[in-house]
Amino acid sequence: MEDLHFLTFLIASVLSFLLFSQLSCAAHIETITPIQSLTDYGDKTTLISPSQAFELGFFSPGKSKNRYLGIWYKRKPETVVWVANRNDPLTDSNGELTVHDGNLVLLNSTRSIVWYSNVSRNVANSPVALLLDSGNFVLREQESANRDEFIWQSFDYPSDTLLFGMKLGWDLNTGFERYITSWKSADDPSVGDGTYRLSVIDGLPQCVISMGLERKFRTGIWNGVRFSGMKAPFLKVYKILYVFNENDEYIMFENTDPYSAISFIKLSPSGFGEHLVLQNSSTDWAIMYTLPLDPLCESYSYCGANAICTITGNPICECLRGFTPRSQEEWRVLTWSKGCVRKKPLACAKGEGFVKVAAVKLPDMFEVSSDKSMSLKECQEACLKSCSCKAYANSDVTKGGSGCLMWSGDLIDIRDMPVKGSEQDLYIRLSVSEIKSISDANKRKKRNIVFSASLTSGACLFGVALWCITWKLRNRGKAGKTKDEDLDLPTFDLATIVAATNNFSPTNMIGAGGFGLVYKGMLCTGQEIAAKRLSNNSGQGLEEFKNEVEVIAKLQHRNLVALLGCCIQNEERILIYEFMPNKSLDCYIFDGKRCTILPWKTHFYIVKGIARGLLYLHQDSKLQIVHRDLKGSNILLDNNFSPKISDFGLARIFRDDEKESRTKRVVGT
Ligand SMILES: *[C@@H]1O[C@H](CO)[C@@H](O)[C@H](O)[C@H]1NC(C)=O
Ligand SMILES: *[C@@H]1O[C@H](CO)[C@@H](O)[C@H](O)[C@H]1NC(C)=O
Ligand SMILES: *[C@@H]1O[C@H](CO)[C@@H](O)[C@H](O)[C@H]1NC(C)=O
């Protein structure tokens, strides 16, 4: 029996010797114990998580010569997610991490402690440190019955990176806060000015990114379903959990997309949040989104106090009802930071009332009081009774809305935020005269409503009819004119397009050109569309719009994008196209990573398709057309990467008898 044991031991030893000599260039260990330390010299050992996702060891960031103990993605060693001795660098490669007296300790060449885990509990009989697959570096009792009970864990001391499963928030028993702090620079991981933390006021949480004391971005408060300033689509890739119990209050991100391989949120030294993702087929990180998403409405208080930011608005910033720009001069040149002030101060008089600002990200939590038990009606009454109350809203959108928030100071960082099903409205207190002018206007509106309704829908039809007539007139006299030359283009109601694109929601935006923004949408029939909304101040006037409609309505070819219809209503001019899921050609040509995705066969297929489309335009169609703006972004790709030429705003028609033509305007590409 004894012999058998010895034999087994011998074989195991030989096997492990063979195995380790194979891997001799990278000496990996699985645990750190009082007798097994991690060294930056000699074997230069590293610790690897069981599934090979993360690696812990010594590194030098960027151009720095200093040595730090950190954790990185094994597949991307330059992506460091945690640093132990951020503020206490080692100046040479003689560092050693070991377990001593129940603590993790980092020693320098003179065996002085540079960093340690600072666990006071003297419970660790035989402590062992290991790196988990989540990226959590933990110290625990070797024989512990509960494998999830840690003496110490790196997740409690985040650096600049939020990994899935990390808590951002508070231990309510000890008052200990876990939050993200940026590096000073790419070469220096010491604690910088940027922070990303959970701010809780009156039991209402929101996440805030700041640089020093200055706020850069906030998610808006938790409204029971989401953070009021965050849109739903993010939730497809991961889930945000908000947990509040007697011990903890925190948020945590949970991966819901098993294929998004690895992803994390990082706070850059300049205070920008980025959610990066590495697909298992690609070799480089891609930015899923940034926080703030855009430098406009998402940026903290972009419009200043008492103003609302509407990303599709023109202008983008507007004072709330009852307010006027603090500086007309500033407002005129489209800089907004000074915000708005009340036209007339509130007198706390009888007859004051409220105006609803629908579907917004609620103002920041300054000078605010809350009561989670009140209904909206009670909230209104309470606000009206209190002379200092300037605005109110429901704090929770679930179950038809509940809870009461009352603001008594300036209203800061409001933006439009249409999120179907969980819109949050804000009610602004107005003076007696302001209320009176609203009710007068409402009365007038009622009288006019029938008239204007018939006028607008009439205008839409009339516009198209007018083009039909001009078209016919222009073509009159041409021989062989047949009936099918009539414009037969459906018109869409503005309301339909608004509903389809989620009120031109920025999340639906799929492109922006010189002439306006393009939105993805879905009609109630389920058909996907791309709506090109011409901005009023764009160069493309009615002239180009008509041109595009005229030209493309006449053309039908599988390599030309199909126009489904148009909408002309009030100031709006919108073209509705079939939706192209594979975006435009420039995304593939000019993106170094993507251009390798498409095989050569597909490239050739696309080139041939474009040529076919051009041949049709130049020669085979009834009209002869020069596109004049042919470029990658105007070649759209459908499901099968079949190319479709789009954007006929600048196209020019040649008459049959014209062999040559001159243009006075410089246009297009
Ligand atoms: C090691 O750390 C101690 C204490 O911080 C310090 O005094 C000493 O100079 C360090 N030694 C080296 C070689 O950096
Ligand atoms: C260690 O922890 C104690 C109590 O938690 C704290 O007072 C002390 O400042 C910590 N020491 C270091 C070096 O972080
Ligand atoms: C990559 O992802 C696909 C799913 O998209 C999965 O089936 C495959 O196993 C993954 N490959 C690796 C190497 O993880």
Automatic annotation (TrEMBL):
Catalytic activity: L-threonyl-[protein] + ATP = O-phospho-L-threonyl-[protein] + ADP + H(+); L-seryl-[protein] + ATP = O-phospho-L-seryl-[protein] + ADP + H(+)
Pfam families: B_lectin, PAN_2, Pkinase, S_locus_glycop
Molecular-function GO term, any one: ATP binding
UniProt GO BP: recognition of pollen
Residue ranges of every copy of the Apple domain listed in the record: 348-431
List of residues binding ATP: 532
Annotated Bulb-type lectin domain residues: 32-152
UniProt cross-references to InterPro entries, sorted A to Z: Bulb-type_lectin_dom, Bulb-type_lectin_dom_sf, Kinase-like_dom_sf, Pan_app, Prot_kinase_dom, Protein_kinase_ATP_BS, S_locus_glycoprot_dom, Ser/Thr_kinase_AS
Name recorded for this polypeptide: non-specific serine/threonine protein kinase
Classification of source organism: Eukaryota, Viridiplantae, Streptophyta, Embryophyta, Tracheophyta
